[in-house]
Fold:
Amino acid sequence: MARGRRNNTRGAGDGALLAANRAIDKEDEYRRGVSKLQARTTVLAELLTSGGDIENVFLQSGGGDAENFLLECRNRVKALAEGNAKRMYEIDYFLEAVKEVKSEVETRQYENGGGGDNNEEELGIQKSAPNYEASIHEALVRARERGEADESRVPVEKHNFVLAIRQKLGEKVPKKRSRASRGADDDDDLEVVNENNIDDVHKFKCPITGMLFEDPVRNKVCGHTYSRAGLMQMVKNRKKTCPVPGCANNRVSLEQVEGDDEMVLKVRRFKTREDAAKRRRELEYDDDNEGENERFTVIN
Structure:
């Protein structure tokens, strides 16, 4: 009976290890989901940027609550970015907890396999399988407490996600995040950023193919974006220098890139606006032709 209980415990441990490995392997999937949320948040911020079209429309309408409405919208967008930053931290804590419990299971199995339970087995002591779900929960609490107490941890309000959104909105943001990541005071290193929100078709074209981005990927080293097919062709031709003029990255590879969800949304929005403008031009052309035809009288 004791041996059967021990086999059940071993089986539970094997199942826990399998589940832990699957969770760890899904790290990129977890983070990609949050990155997609952040990409949508970035597009919203660009629409609400200081001096942008939406602000001009509301302010010119003369509504007394226009400024308050814009302020509320911008605060909500920043809150979305903070939520995305918190989700990234929660992924860190969860994975840390999973790895901690995984290590404990592996240690327990090694000790059991080495005969550490022989005396208990001979005495007929039955050991129940550990509650790994409870272990994960407890490890998660500890990981979160360590993370929140870590002075080198970047505060949510200074996370890259939040700083990027503030920059899109035209607010003052730190020039460099690296100082904040070390816990340094960077309040003396501020600048005002107010990007022009006008769509420029060149911003949406791949520097390799010269066409609008298709399945865009962003280089994590230099920050430039390419179409995946264009990059694959470039790598196939054994070219390693980033095609963006002035870029010093001469070791471009497929391993350096990740999906650019923000560019996907930007290109989609650009195409939608271009299609709408085309339809407007066609309607104006039809109206002009009807006006010209009305000026002529057919005489039989």
Observations:
- Residues 181 and 224 are 23 Å apart (CA to CA).
- Residues 115-126, 177-198 have pLDDT under 50 and may be disordered.
- The first strand starts at residue 172 and ends at 174.
